[in-house]
Each structure stands twice: as structure tokens, then as C-alpha cells.
Amino acid sequence: NPIRDHGTAIAAAIASLSTAPTGFILACTGDVAFGGKDAEYAIAKELLGTIRDELAHRRPTTPQHWIFIPGNHDCDFGLETDVRVALLETVGLRLPQLTVESGIVQECLSVQDSFFSFVSEFTSRTRLPIRNRLYWEQAATIGSKRLRFRCLNTGWMSRKNEKQGSLGFPVGVIPEPDPLIDDLVVTLLHHPYNWFEAMNARALRATLERTSDIILTGHEHDGTFYQKLSPSGEVVHYTEGSVLQDTSGDGLRGFNALLIDLIESHQTVF
Fold it and tell me: What is the pLDDT of residues 118-165, one digit of tens each?
């Protein structure tokens, strides 16, 4: 698999952005695998392990923080039960009432088990229990600044042949961040808003933009970024992920890098 050969070059590009970084945050916004299979995650671990080790070699005193969320390709649909299929037909009507403890949610999450095993093995963290796999948070301290990363599992409703406008996310499970504690709030979700049912997309967008400084997405392979200014003067920064491995030959392979100065409140996107 030729993707294995790119780890050293990726790490070199990241390390070259700053001569004295105070921290690296490496965030993957989904689709680590193609079909949610263990053999695919083994390749991913080899590639990402090279990046991790090469960064440590080039910047040995700089801490690394790794953050992963799943995408639709991190679902193993070979494990899908007829119960999950039936639930997905009606779950949209129940979104406002759903909680992370819901049996509906947990059944729908069952196809992502290999993804969460991979994350646990790669990061040496305890594997998230299924009740925490719809939404979770990670915190990182960089210098004197505290960063909060909010992880949304938008692939929980994914199907093998996914259509725009078919997804939903229970907005009520997203807690309010504390501006007195967090210096930067970054939200990660795999699917952009156009993949959600219209009313749900509107509620989700309003919640995330009101409570996030930076929003990272994947799925559409655009590799672009933009800023959105609200009428109240608040700015949210969007960065949409490129595709790192494209076998079709039609797209531009790559990744995004954000160089963030937390003292001057400034960022540059590469």
C-alpha cells in the first residue's frame, strides 16, 4: 500500500511550520479505514506510527496529542444487524429525545467497534465504552493555554449507500463549553451540514457555531478553509479535510495544517 511511504514526508512538513512549537495536535476527522476492517487499521497504525515517531525525532521536547473521530468508512457494515437497519428507518423522528444512553444509539454504534479498538491501541487510552461513543471530549494543555476538543460521531447513522440529507445528530447531547476554563474550543465532525436532514442541520450548525472557535470536517475531500462572521461579531473558522489517499486519480491528495498562536489569537492555514 503506497500510503505507507508518506509518513516521513508528512511529519517533515508538519515540523517545518515552526522552529519552536509548544505542542502538536494531530486530528483525524474520520475515514481512517475504507470498510472498518482490522486489516485496514493495521495499515493506518503503521502510517500514523511513522508520523508520530518522526515528529518525536525532529521535535523531541514537543508534546503530541492525537484525536480521532469516525467517518462512514469506519463502519463495518458486514456486522450490521437487521435491527440496526430497521432502526435507521425511524430514528430521525426520535432525534430530539435521544440520549447517549439510548439503546437505539448503542445499536447503531455497533458497526464501529473496530474503529474504537484501533484508537485505544494507537493512543494507549482506555477504549471508550459504547455509551460514550456518540459524543466525547478531549482536553489538552499547551503552555499556559487549555484547549477543548469536542468530538461528534456523525457516522453513527451511516449506511453503505449514504445519501445527502439522510443523517441526524441529537443536538441535545452537546454540552455548553465554559469560556472561563477553555482558551480555544475546537469541534470535530466528519460530515458537513448538507448531509443532515435540513432542520437538524440548521440546529446543529447554530449550536456548533455559537460554541466553537474552530470547526474541522471531513468526508467531502475539499481541503479548503473559510471564516464565518455572525451578526453579533463572533467569528468561527472552518477547515475542511483533504483526502490523504485517493485511488481514483481524480482528486488532490493532501492534508491541512493549522499553525495557531494562542498568545496573539492568530492562525495560518496550510
Answer: 999 999 999 999 999 999 999 999 988 999 999 999 999 999 989 999
Q: State the SS3 of the chain.
A: CHHHHHHHHHHHHHHCCCCCCCCEEEEECCCCCCCCCHHHHHHHHHHHHHHHHHHHHHCCCCCEEEEECCCHHHCCHHHCCHHHHHHHHHHHHHHHHCCCCCHHHHHHHHHHHHHHHHHHHHHCCCCCCHHHCCEEEEEEEECCEEEEEEEECHHHHCCCCCCCCCECCCHHHCCCCCCCCCCEEEEEECCCHHHECHHHHHHHHHHHHHHCCEEEECCCCCCCEEEEECCCCCEEEEEECCECCCCCCCCCECCCCEEEECCCCEEEEC
Residues in the chain with pLDDT < 50? none
The pLDDT score that the predictor gives to residue 249 is 66
pTM beyond cutoff 0.85: yes
